[in-house]
Amino acid sequence: MERIIDLRSDTVTKPTDGMREAMKDAEVGDDVFGEDPTVNALQEKVARLLNKEAAIFVCSGTMANQVAIRAHTQHGDEVIIESESHTFNYEGGGGAALSGVQYHPIKGDRGVLDPAQIEDAIRPHDHHFAPTRLICLENTHNRAGGRIYPIEKIRGAHHIAKRNGLAMHLDGARLLNASTASGIPPDRYARYFDSVSICLSKGLGAPIGSVTAGSREFIDRVHRFRKMFGGGMRQVGIIAAAGIYALDHHADRLGLDHANAKRLAQGLSQIDGVQIDLNIVETNIVVFDVSEMGIDPHHIAESLKERRILMIPFGKALIRAVTHLDVSAEDIERSIEIAADVFSSLKRRPGTNSPSRKMS
Ligand code: TLP
Known about the structure:
By secondary structure, the protein is of the alpha/beta class. It has helices at 17-24, 37-50, 61-72, 86-89, 94-99, 115-121, 151-163, 175-182, 186-190, 216-228, 237-249, 254-269, 297-306, 329-348, and strands at residues 5-6, 54-58, 78-82, 102-106, 132-138, 167-172, 195-199, 210-214, 285-289, 309-310, 312-314, 318-322. The protein has two domains: 17-249, 3-Layer(aba) Sandwich (Aspartate Aminotransferase, domain 2); 253-348, Aspartate Aminotransferase, domain 1 (Alpha-Beta Complex). A hairpin with a 3-residue loop joins strand 11 (312-314) and strand 12. Residues 9, 11, 60-62, 86, 90, 138, 142, 171, 173, 199, 201, 210 line the site of ligand TLP.
């Protein structure tokens, strides 16, 4: 039977043999005591990469964002955030539950906020309002199809933040994808933010882990919240080793994923009923519109699954496919062929609409 081609997310990658070797040989210690040499090496490596004073290893991208929000804010503060962002939509209400903050979501242009929109959203000093404290941006932007956040918009947001005494946090789960595609190094993006989180377990291919970086004083504060949220881990160098390996061996190959995503988008765009603007596929995420077909995306995803191609329905009109380490150029050709086949047979025999609330 044909192998499953899993395009649901770049989180599905499996550790390579080389990565497993590195994990096996990792030196470990108790990281809650700060004594795990491999975790310390990873943290220093990421701090250097982002040109920040310090960094902290956490178990997930969600935790990386949530500890940062907690450390930047006090209960009752307001956080300006793009309304399609991961932190606003997919982190289980963490901002309200863990930090007691009120999100002020603003709809961007495909995930990107204009600095003027941010300025307009800042609350005046008046006891009626929750004080604005933090701005959260996402680069690349997941729901906007892996869009690279234009650096001039980031710079504009930074100037506004400085003028108004606000902090800036970057959800850089896929920052290295942005850097690979734009040629702008990670530290040039990072300089405009007080804190930056990156994920090791997405395109970089580690099984677990994210890192948040910032000033030494900020990271000290994050340490307390990581512990409070139950994220203090012990001999976790065994996992940090996978993160180091990922940065050393998998960062340079992200361009292949981008080329595969472009080819996939181009192939899908030839299929009747699929709408996709090829110019907006900048990194490793392809989001395409199937509303013209009049068939629920969940039903389409189910039909693709029967042919061993996995993609994720994104709401009522969209489907997302993500390229990564475990997907080859041949897999992309096969996915296009099968998708064309599935779409044309669905059009001949429209299925029932089977709405599901997942990821919508
Ligand atoms: N994104 C996952 C899903 O949760 C949607 C995916 O498959 O893309 N920031 C961004 C921009 C993300 O895309 C994600 C994960 C996270 C943070 C959270 O990372 P984890 O899943 O490690 O908590």
